[in-house]
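A.,

Following up on our hallway conversation. Structure tokens first:
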């Protein structure tokens, strides 16, 4: 190799190494695995003030939601949408009984979410969230944004059961 080529290689800009995607940095189009099931990420709602993300996951016709929140430990909850109706934001109870399961209000908060892709709420904005838990550790989540409620039923997922298979 000539001296000129060596000098040229020293000053040449090298491409930075490609950063591996984590579950918190995935975006629509990425593929993830949760509890041995493979899903494509189709939407993402990010609440930066809480360091929380709700991913919309799709496997064929099945749509589920993975909630991720970074606290002392990263917490994962997998949800399914359920049918239900509430009349007003002011009337969300602290205890809800549904299908012989009693859910108790665990946490209530508001925050601004940024939405990308296909998500239950198609626009970014202020969102109100109520998280409930039963004595059997079943989860219930209520979201309200722009005059619309969404209700979810779910369970906690172990961190080892969540991984990114392919990023875009």
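Then the amino acids I'd put at each of the 168 positions:
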């Amino acid at each position: 190799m000539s001296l000129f080529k060596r000098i040229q290689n020293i000053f040449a800009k090298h491409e930075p190494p490609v950063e591996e995607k984590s579950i918190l940095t995935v975006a629509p189009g990425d593929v993830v695995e949760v509890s041995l099931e493979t899903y494509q990420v189709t939407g993402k709602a990010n609440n930066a003030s809480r360091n929380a993300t709700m991913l919309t996951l799709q496997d064929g016709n099945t749509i589920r939601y993975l909630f991720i929140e970074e606290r002392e430990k990263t917490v994962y909850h997998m949800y399914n949408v359920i049918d239900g109706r509430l009349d007003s934001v002011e009337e969300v109870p602290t205890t809800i009984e549904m299908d012989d399961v009693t859910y108790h209000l665990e946490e209530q908060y508001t925050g601004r979410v940024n939405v990308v892709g296909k998500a239950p709420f198609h626009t970014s904005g202020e969102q109100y969230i109520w998280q409930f838990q039963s004595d059997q550790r079943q989860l219930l989540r209520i979201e309200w944004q722009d005059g619309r409620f969404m209700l979810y039923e779910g369970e906690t997922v172990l961190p080892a059961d969540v991984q990114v298979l392919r990023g875009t």
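Residues 27 and 41 are 7 Å apart (CA to CA). Curious whether your intuition agrees with the design.

B.
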